[in-house]
Amino acid sequence: MELNNIFVREFTRIRVVLVAMIAALLFLAVFLWQLQVVGARKYQGSVAKQSVRCVRLPGARGRILDRHGVSIADNRPSYCIAIYIEELRQPGRWDKTVDKIESVISNLSAVLGVEKTVTREDIKKHIRIRPYMPFLAWRDVDDTVLARWAESNVKFPGVDVYVEPLRVYPDGEVGAHVLGYVGKADIDQNEDETAYNFYLPEMDGKSGIELFANDVLAGVPGGRLICVDASGFKRRESKLLEYERGRKISERAPHPGRDVTLTIDLGIQRLVEKAITNATGAAVVIDPRNGDVLALASSPGFDPNRFNAGLSAREFRKISQGEGNPLFNRAISGIYPPGSVFKPVVIMASLASKKAGEGTRFDCPGYFQLGNTRFHCWCKEGHGVIGMRKAIEQSCNSYFCQLGLLTGEKGIQQMAADAGFGRRTGIDLKMESSGFVPDEAWKKRVYHDAWRKGDTCNLSIGQGALNITPVQVAVFAAAIANGGNIYRPRLIKTGTDEGDLIKKMQWSREDLSILRNGMYDVVQSDTGTGKRARIPDVEMAGKTGTAEYGVKGSGKKYAWMMVFAPFDKPRYAIVMVVEEAISGGVTIAPRIREVARRIFAIENSKRAVIDSRAALTPEGGQG
Amino acid sequence: MSKYLALTKRMNWLLTIATGLLLVIGVFFIYSACYSSEEARVRLLYMKQITWMLAGLGCYAWFAFYDYRKMSRFSWWAYGGIIVLLVFVLFAKPINNARSWLDLFGLKVQPSELAKLVTIILLARLLSQPSIKLWEIRTTFLILGIVALPIVLVILEPDPGTALIFMPVTFIMMFVAGVPLRYLMTLAGIAVVAVGMILSALFLPAKFGWSEEKQDKIMSMTMLKKHQRERIMNFFHPDKDPLKSGWNKIQSELAVGSGGMWGKGFKQGTQNILGFLPRAVAHTDFIYSVIAEEKGFAGSMSVLFLFGIIIAVGMQTAVMARDRMGRLLCVAVISMIFSHVFINLAMTVGLMPIIGVPLPLLSYGGSFMIVTMSALGIVQSVYIRCRPVESPI
Q: Is B176 in Cβ contact with A14 (below 8 Å)?
């Protein structure tokens, strides 16, 4: 090996290493010369001090659309006066810089003619958390301010207009509980990561779909580094132009968020909200064919437009602690005793147990006596001896107590669990409650007592510890309407029309038709408890419910009603609950009638439009 | 006492002076990098650095007077001890996402820094044994095994910068000791192939237009953490993401570049003062860009020149050393310092991807200061004992 011969002596090898090291250092020296002396002009400019400004390119948040593509959550640009902190940075402690920023803001306030809105604390907090981001001294300024700014911006180096996307909900309160709202993003305050915070979106979904689908909706902001010439502001002419061109160093493109299409039908949503607007309660409309949620409302509502990145904690408290707890979504989080709307569960349980049939008859003297306890029927005179169909129509408590005892609590509990009560429906929203179906283990745990017949009676008429959410009732009503398919209620529209089937109930056609006929009578019979919901043209079926709450005898009642329509081929399942009401038949039925009437009126007018279009273009297509 | 005086007289004063100057420069620029900080703790870091400097000088003196030939006795024990510490540190509480620090009685120690010194002492001892058979491939494997163990443990911390330093140092030591060139060439070839494979794993999937999941899967085969991959990719495409992982690089380049010939003056560097350079690293890994900005080309060249002196003196000492052990020790220490200087500077001026490698004598940090000063003390020790005795033979 020739090379080996050259390096035979250790001294030679050491010298070779030394020469290589010196050469490497010389290479660095040449590179430094290039960078610092030859290339100095590039970085330094002749006189002026240059600095780099990060301009943030916001990633727009995706829109939220209703099932027909109407935008119900959108963005609009809002112009902010932004202060680029690095460019105002004073040597020394940060306090000096904060002083400088404050004085700049005061001057700006005088020139622009707007009141100062930020405090010294805000500036300090901003520097602590997001020093790389511009500080927004004024948000969403109007055209006058922008015009004044355009006149005098030369005098304010380090200040610029910053466009920030602002979330808007064109329909205001409509669908507020479904949509939710956005707020300032929570920032990881780890100081090593401050540079990374730059790319975090400014707003995050805080509730509703905005929260649930936040990952889809949220855009990723990009950034652009530009060279700005700080003293170029003082010397106008070419320097200024150079600044305005903003010599771009590099850029990272923002990624806008994706749109989310809901199953909500904005028209129906409006009707439903109008129907409960003067009450405290909730309403849900589901398409029984696939579980699509067409409307979901909770009252009182709120205006999500009021929540924005700039909302202060005090204002937030004012809204959230407002009368009736408006931010609370009663349709999915509210738990209510169901009262008589639970009776269809008892019917199906008794029929499934084969212990009762359509011909099962019980006597109602106006109450049901069980030992020392008397369970009153709403009809004090009593219904007499009645059959199942009549019992459903009349919602007779005496009948259902006896039917429940005949069936046994196990069968009812099992049927309730199968129908989805006592667990979350899996709707595309967070904070869903599961409700509660009492059982023996619970009784033992809480009351240290065995399950008694009285508990079965309470369960059979939907009272006691039983708790359910309106959306669970809607899913159940849809299952009655569609022949026993428990669907997951969908809010976010997917590609298919097929629903997400959770469970197919083993209900026989005959059993189901007994229940459905009873529910038909509830609305369509002149003696039915829900007759006030009846509308011309379309036949509906339903069940009312009234549950007492609070101190016994205080007269506080939750009123329920569920309906599905049209009776033979149901396309809508509507559920409504109102707090502090009179009864399901009196309080809810007229509201449901209003909703149903308008839904079908809209449907008819749409059909009329389609028909007329077809009539107007007879030859067009084929011609 | 007179013995120490005699030894002091034999010291290489050029090495001591160059080292001392660099230490003083370090303290000044740590002050400049930190004085505008909000936190009092950071503002006073230069005081702590002075403490470290004094402790370092103590180590320097101690190792200079200590006869380096006696070190071979402890080298295996020290190596075993440091391996235990390196394993131990993996169970420590992570600081800045790395488990590099061991808390010894309130003193934060980085075993990975000590590992560098201990490993090169052991290697010098092994390679200088008269019985060593360098031409046997077994010897090469033994050496690689000894080095690989701490490297793997340090990578697990993770501290890739420190792990990286081991490689050139070992390579240079083997070269100087006389390991056959064909072995060394093979090693270099393997390194090139490994780097090539990592780079192609990072860049080719995107070129082929594979799905992101597949890209991610292939990239994760490189065993690099996501932010490390991003840094490497950013080095090749700094424009792609200037604000995230490219931020330090661009800011550092700007700081160095804007220094010009004479710099902006002490404490006047805007890139640093105005907080463009990330505050967390300005006084540690990026101290050189603070110097380059505030003192310009003149300042950065002076620092480079001082390091050049240390390297030249160290290598000259290696040539003059009395025995093979001393020779290899000098070569190892100097190549360690050189590797640190070169990688740190190359990273500062944008020639290399950013990996956390501090600049010897200048960067803030206790463990590394102690290690560097001890290492230079060993060089001094070799120098003191290499001079031919003045009396005729």
A: yes
Contact present, A52 and A73 (Cβ < 8 Å): no
What pLDDT sits at residue A196?
46
In chain B, residues with a C-beta closer than 8 Å to the C-beta of A192 are 96, 280
**Min Cα–Cα distance to chain B from A186, Å:** 19
Show the DSSP H helices in chain B as ranges.
2-10, 13-34, 40-43, 45-65, 71-89, 111-127, 137-156, 160-177, 181-208, 212-220, 226-236, 247-257, 270-273, 279-282, 287-320, 324-348, 366-384
For residues A428 and A545, membership in a common domain is answered with: yes
Closest by Cβ to B311, choosing from A21, A31, A191: A21
Q: Indicate the pairing of strand A248-252 with strand A260-261.
A: unpaired
- Give the separation between CA A270 and CA A150, rounded to whole angstroms: 43
Given B244, B246, B341, which is nearest A199 (Cβ)?
B244
| Boundary of a domain, candidates A239, A261, A283 | A261
From the list B260, B312, B346, the residue facing A28 with the nearest CB is B346
Residue A235 has pLDDT above 50, yes or no: no
Low-confidence ranges of chain B (pLDDT < 50): 273-274, 389-393
Instruction: Give the orientation angle of helix A453-460 with respect to helix A409-418, to 10 degrees.
Output: 40
Residues on chain A touching B251 (C-beta within 8 angstroms):
52
Together in a domain, A18 and A143 = no
The answer to the question of residue B274 being in a domain is: yes
pTM: 0.64
- A376 shares its domain with A253: no
B175: nearest CA in chain A? Answer: A13
Give per-residue pLDDT as tens, A294-324: 999 998 888 888 886 556 677 777 777 777 7
Same domain, A15 and A65: no
pLDDT at A117 over 70: yes
A196 contact residues in B (CB cutoff 8 A): 244
By residue range, what is the domain housing residue A72?
50-261
Q: Are residues A215 and A275 in the same domain?
A: no
Number of separate domains in chain B: 1
User: A-B interface: how many C-beta pairs under 8 angstroms?
Assistant: 161
Mark yes or no for CB contact B260/A40 under 8 Å.
Answer: yes
Q: Which residue of A has its CA nearest to B323?
A: A10
Closest residue by Cα to residue B28 from B303, B251, B343: B303
Residue B391 lies in a domain: no
A93 and B244: CB-CB below 8 Å?
A: no
Q: Are residues A382 and A256 in the same domain?
A: no
Whether complex ipTM tops 0.85: yes
CATH number at residue A229: 3.90.1310.10
pLDDT of residue A598: 92
Residue with tokens 């990286």: B164
Same structural domain, A295 and A185 = no
So what's the pLDDT on residue A348?
92
Structure tokens at A260: 């989310």
Note down the domain range covering B117.
2-384
Q: A257 and A270: one domain?
A: no
Which of B243, B256, B315 is nearest residue A195 as measured by Cβ atoms?
B243
Q: Please tell me which residue of chain A has the smallest CA distance to B306.
A: A25
Query: Which pLDDT belongs to residue A162?
Result: 81
| pLDDT mean over A232-249 | 40
